[in-house]
Amino acid sequence: METANSTRWKDRLLLILCILPMVLAMTVKVLTTQEAPLSEGVNISGAQIFFAIDMPLQPLYITSALVNSWCVILTIFFLCLYLTHGIKVIPDSRRQHAAEWIVDTVNKLVRENMGESYMGFAPFIAGILGLSALSSLSSLLGLFPPTSDVNIVLGWAILVFGIITHYKLKGGLWAYIKSFFSPVFVFAPLNIIGELATPISMSFRHYGNIMSGMVISTLISFALRSLSKALLGWLPGILGNIPFLQVGLPAVLSLYLDIFSGCMQAFIFAMLTMMFVATAAPEENV
Amino acid sequence: MLEIAIGIILGCCAIGAGIALIAGVGPGIGEGQAAAKACEAVGRQPESKSAVTSTLILGCALAETTGLYGLIIGILLIFVAPGSFVGILKSAIEWAKNSGML
User: Fold this and answer.
1) What CATH number is attached to the domain comprising B38?
2) Which of residues 66-85 of B touch A (CB under 8 A)?
3) Of the candidates A44, A205, A264, which has its C-beta nearest B68's C-beta?
4) ipTM score here?
5) What's the whole-model pTM score?
6) Each residue of B53-67: pLDDT tens digit?
7) What is the extent of the structural domain holding B90?
8) Which long-range contacts (CB under 8 A, 24 or more apart) does A21-27 make?
């Protein structure tokens, strides 16, 4: 009886710890945002810079994208602890079923796309999927989505590029250098550009999708506000200032631009990572 | 004189953003062809609809990339470039004045 009680308390504690980072990020946003006057034009800006730390080459800017990214990481950490604490051989709780479903799905995905010898990549792929999807979905809470800052996504893409290069180097340094000069010597610049294009195209695809969604939804909600001001501005008193047309339509758009696009890009980023890594290894190792 | 220069910068940034979005034509044609082929495939083999749909969505999202490059350039030209170009112009004028060229 006592163990069941303590498990329930641990459940609640970990759930609260899951939500806490998000609440923290929202509090930081509310405390640091300056209220823009209503008459001001459409205002689209990048991540807000909180402060800068002096570094030798360039100051390190602590932006809202960075803070939100760490909050998402903490949320995922506590979510994993919540899902997996006190698991049993024969599952009897819903959260253990959910955890097993997640692990099974990612294992299946990795097995289908990379093969049995790469099963060690499953946690990494699951990490990328979860981090990317939750980062994009954090815009639903009104936060600045970390994935709409190119620096964050470029960081992930460079990490993936490092893994790809590591697997290519497994065939030996000489084979790696020689692969740049195939099929003919003249193709070397093209091959090098093609190699460097991998992280850039991966990061720009992800960041471009999320950022363009943010820009489009901002523009549309601004247009609706102006429209309702022009159409309904004659209403007396405070009724004239309420943007009635802004109700509803932005939510429908956000269904595509935030939820579908965000999950889709997370899936594509993970998919491309798997494909690039699986094809990078030299033939005889597979 | 400076006003005219700034006006030219703003106008050229807007024109450049418009030209950059021509990049949207390519993915539009490509995704349309992909969707047409997917319709054909589903019509031929209705039982493989779910596999065709997921492959189509993945392919469409990949084909979008080139269009997104144009979109990013367009957004940068509208929201970022005018300010930085005007800043460059002003600092160049300052530098020219200081070194006695103007």
Assistant:
1) 1.20.20.10
2) 68-69, 71-72, 75, 79
3) A205
4) 0.71
5) 0.82
6) 888 888 888 888 888
7) 7-98
8) A21/A70, A21/A71, A21/A72, A21/A74, A21/A75, A21/A78, A22/A71, A22/A75, A22/A138, A22/A141, A22/A143, A24/A71, A25/A67, A25/A68, A25/A71, A25/A138, A25/A141, A25/A143, A26/A141, A26/A142, A26/A143
